[in-house]
Amino acid sequence: MTATKGLEGIVATTSSISSIIDGVLTYRGIDIDDLAEHASFEEVAYLLWYGKLPNQSELDGLIGQIGEYAVLPAQVIEQLKLFPKNTNSMAALRTAVSSLALYDESANDMSHEANLKKAIKIQAQVPTLVAAFARIRNGQEPVAPKKGATIAYNFLYMLTGQEPDQVAVKALDQALVLHADHELNASTFAARVTVATLSDIYSGVTSAIGALKGPLHGGANEAVMVMLEEIGSFDNVESYINAKLANKEKIMGFGHRVYKGGDPRAKHLQKMSRELGKLTGNMELYEMSVKIEEIVTGQKGLKPNVDFYSASVYTTLQIPRDLFTPIFAISRASGWTAHILEQYENNRLIRPRAEYTGPVDQKVTPITQR
Ligand SMILES: CC(=O)SCCNC(=O)CCNC(=O)[C@H](O)C(C)(C)COP(=O)(O)OP(=O)(O)OC[C@H]1O[C@@H](n2cnc3c(N)ncnc32)[C@H](O)[C@@H]1OP(=O)(O)O
Ligand SMILES: O=C([O-])CC(=O)C(=O)O
């Protein structure tokens, strides 16, 4: 038995949800470029769950359902108020999503209908949780979601308590489309491993949030912003990045386990970053990002991944840095739950082996002799 470090190249499941073939990402066979330009996040979530794009009445139905489920149990809001104000926002989300299960009477109903309903419910409640936590820690009351509004609109509305700008809603909606699913990434794998024991959907999503939090995965978008803040201005980019590379440190937002020729989502976020920069009259973050890309790609051949330009996009949308990864979770909730449903449909326990590298033929030394 020989281990493959990081399971690189190992095909661990079959799936009909999303694919990465020759660097092209599709959801249910539709190219991400097409979806990014022509579909809303709710259409994409429907596509991931049901395997087809919704017609107008199906879409209206889903938006209605999301509106109905988006309100949080009062007990969970009370719990959010007890969290330390400075707690990590992904840790808060992880705990809060786990708590949702306590107030869902169907949490352990394993029928497909019940699990699909819970998938939609989790998708509806995650944005409300993120926005509510963000307000509560600032000493503000949470804002209730508006019925009939999209997730992108509602998230910005619940975060600020004000009618969001249409450009911001459109940009966030497109970012949600781009992050919705990604084959067997680490957090989706974590979700599938968890539910393959026939544990409940909340356990699966809680595991996934824990995996997404790390800076080698979803946490990279926040880490990119930390780096941009450390750099401070365009003129410092070159010396900062060169020093990091000389030191063999990783540049966050670059590289990918699967894409070696570039992440197809990054160009959409780069375009969005440029357009938002122009619109707000502040191109500095965009220009700094382009310069970083020039150096890192030039010297290391590494291309930006989905997390790189999303940092400047979200900052230009005036979203606090530590909500970037929770926003990733808002989007990926659709993919996680679609994969969980698929896992249940064709389940087998996921239990690989380990190559043992420890000592052999050891004996118990009596405690007095250790
Ligand atoms: C949504 C997402 O999860 S996208 C990924 C988000 N994560 C990041 O942006 C964090 C930065 N990137 C990375 O850490 C990696 O590229 C990963 C984790 C994404 C992929 O990693 P792996 O496939 O395991 O590649 P690994 O980490 O083994 O790197 C291979 C080589 O490239 C180098 N490398 C990879 N990424 C980077 C980077 N961002 N900056 C500098 N060097 C890098 C490594 O140092 C290593 O070099 P070596 O062979 O000289 O030791
Ligand atoms: O697929 C991966 O390894 C990480 C990634 O890009 C994602 O989850 O969107």
What can you tell me about this protein's structure?
- InterPro entries: 2-MeCitrate/Citrate_synth_II, Citrate_synth-like_lrg_a-sub, Citrate_synth-like_sm_a-sub, Citrate_synthase, Citrate_synthase_AS, Citrate_synthase_bac-typ, Citrate_synthase_sf.
- Belongs to the citrate synthase family.
- It holds the Pfam family Citrate_synt.
- Pathway: Carbohydrate metabolism; tricarboxylic acid cycle; isocitrate from oxaloacetate: step 1/2.
- The chain is mostly helical.
- About 55% of the residues lie in helices and about 5% in strands.
- Strands 1-2-3 form a 3-stranded antiparallel sheet.
- Helix 1 (about 30-40) packs antiparallel against helix 8 (about 165-180) and helix 11 crosses helix 15.
- The two termini are about 35 Å apart.
- The mean pLDDT is about 100.
- The structure holds acetyl coenzyme *A and oxaloacetate ion.
- The site of oxaloacetate ion (OAA) has 7 residues, from loops.
Task: Based on the model shown, name its key terms.
Citrate Synthase, domain 1, binds acetyl coenzyme *A, tricarboxylic acid cycle, 16 helices, citrate synthase activity, Citrate synthase, Cytochrome p450-Terp, domain 2, 370 residues, 3-stranded antiparallel β-sheet, 2-MeCitrate/Citrate_synth_II, binds oxaloacetate ion, mainly alpha
